[in-house]
Amino acid sequence: MRGLAQAAGFLTWLPVGSREPEQARRYGSGADSAGSTQAAIPWFPVVGGAIGLLLGGLWCGLGRVLPYGVAAALVVGADLIVTGMLHMDGLVDTADGLIPPMDRQRRLDVMRDPRAGAFGVVAAVAVLVVRFATLARFAPSVILLCGLWALSRGMAGLVMTVMPYAKGSGGIANFFLGTAGGAHESSPGQVYPAVGGPTTFSNVEMHGEAQFGGPLEPLVGMPGSSGDQPPGSAPRSRSRPWGLHAMGAVSGAGGAAIGAAALLSWSVRGGAEGLAGAVVGFTATSLFGFARLGGFTGDVLGASIVMAETLGLVAAAIH
User: Fold this and answer.
1) How many CB atoms are closer than 10 A to CB 31?
2) Quick check: 130 and 309 in contact, CB under 8 A?
């Protein structure tokens, strides 16, 4: 169950997860810590489904006493609170970094900048309006949100284990994989403090700047690139342990199973359309990041999660 607690710590700002020893909060914390962190990946769709259940229950409760539009607005806000706005911040950074014309290194620099630009603000406002409008169209449903939220996190766990990591250095490769795969060494003193509470993995301070750019930033220090490659270059391919691929496959399969079961129970036609919309939204956003950066970042995965949920809701609303 430690993997479940760590997955919840990665994907939410809920006060869950255990306090880790000092060495586990540093880069290069060793294989044991890396293994326990890897064990969080298969739990991603479970945590996503739980978030959906929580939001869906709130939606149903509010829908009994408030107009559907008001209930929808409150649920959109509650989602931002539960996730600590990590996914939405990833969308903002991704829009700022990937949409304007610039070179690859400049894109990465922009995505690290905590300030929001025009592209990011417009993207966030548009997505929030669409999410509100689609939720207001539906009668409140627990299983609708459970299915979409589980599917989006399951796909995130899969993609992060098969797609190269876009950053040539940084991240927490040693924390995630120990010394496996030739992960580069870390700088001393780079730790992972919690915000307003015990140490969790929901947030991370890297290179002197707080990084809240995506829900999976603590997991994305993959050995998809070498620490000595030239700055600004695309990540070099490097093999990953088969166990990591297996965990990603379990995450993807779990997200697909929970998503399909929940959405098709909600409505056969609408659920199928919602499934297709979520897959298209996640895949298109991830591939856009791959085309621009040569791989994924935590920001790109956060944006992919948001787009999967949003397009899933839109597609489900068509029927």
Assistant:
1) 13
2) no
CA separation for the pair 273, 22 (Å, rounded): 46
| 44 neighbors 12 (Cβ within 8 angstroms) | no
In this structure, what are the phi and psi dihedrals at residue 191, rounded to the nearest 5 degrees? -120, 175
C-alpha span between 192 and 172 (Å, rounded): 10
Cβ-based neighbours of 64, under 8 Å, separated by 6 or more: none
For the stretch 107-159, pLDDT in tens is 988 988 888 889 999 999 999 999 999 999 999 999 999 999 999 999 999 99
Closest CA relative to residue 147, chosen from 307, 261, 253? 261
Look at residues 251, 186, 181, 259 and name the one whose alpha carbon lies nearest to residue 223: 181
* pLDDT tens track for 273-315: 999 999 999 999 999 999 999 888 889 999 999 999 999 999 9
d(CA 239, CA 143): 38
Question: Tokens 């992972």, residue?
Answer: 192
Backbone torsions φ then ψ of 204, nearest 5 degrees: -155, 140
Domain ranges within the chain, ordered by starting residue: 2-316
% of the chain beyond a pLDDT of 90: 52
DSSP string, 257-315: HHHHHHHHHH-HHHHHHHHHHHHHHHHHHHHHHHHHHSSB-HHHHHHHHHHHHHHHHHH
Q: Tell me the residue type at 91.
A: L
Interval 197-238: pLDDT, tens: 333 333 333 333 333 334 344 344 333 334 444 545 555 545
